[in-house]
Write a structure and sequence with these properties.
It is a single chain. This protein is mainly beta. Helices cover 5% and strands 48% of the residues. A hairpin with a 6-residue loop joins strand 4 and strand 5.
């Protein structure tokens, strides 16, 4: 059973940056897809970004050019660098993982962290 723990959320002004980290309790090497979902109050859950075991990345249109996802398998850690943050990025961000890429992107990932709050406001 893989356990995921996020850190790095917080409060930031518009235009600022944050880096989220996700540490897994076990080896990530079997997880073909890892990444981040987010959910804001009154909104549906949204795929933000994911990265495959081979290093291919996928981003929501709303964050392209501003967010960068990376993973370091040797450290069992996934990162999300968020730049040029906007108020609409405010949400709880969840680290997620699944063995199957299609399940990850088009279904519901099997593994979820507890979430970390990101608030972007003046």
């Amino acid at each position: 059973q893989l356990q995921l723990v996020e850190s790095g959320g917080g409060f930031v002004q518009p235009g600022g940056s944050l880096r989220l980290s996700c540490a897994s309790s076990g080896s990530m090497s079997s997880m073909n897809a890892m990444g981040w979902y987010r959910q804001a109050p009154g909104h549906q859950r949204e795929l933000v970004a994911d990265i495959t075991s081979g290093g291919s990345t996928n981003y929501a249109d709303s964050v392209k050019g501003r967010f960068t996802i990376s993973r370091v398998n040797a450290k069992n850690t996934v990162y999300l660098q968020m730049n040029s943050l906007k108020p609409e990025d405010t949400a709880v961000y969840y680290c997620t993982a699944d063995i199957l890429i299609d399940v990850y992107r088009f279904g519901v990932p099997r593994y979820w962290g507890q979430g970390t709050q990101v608030t972007v406001a003046s």
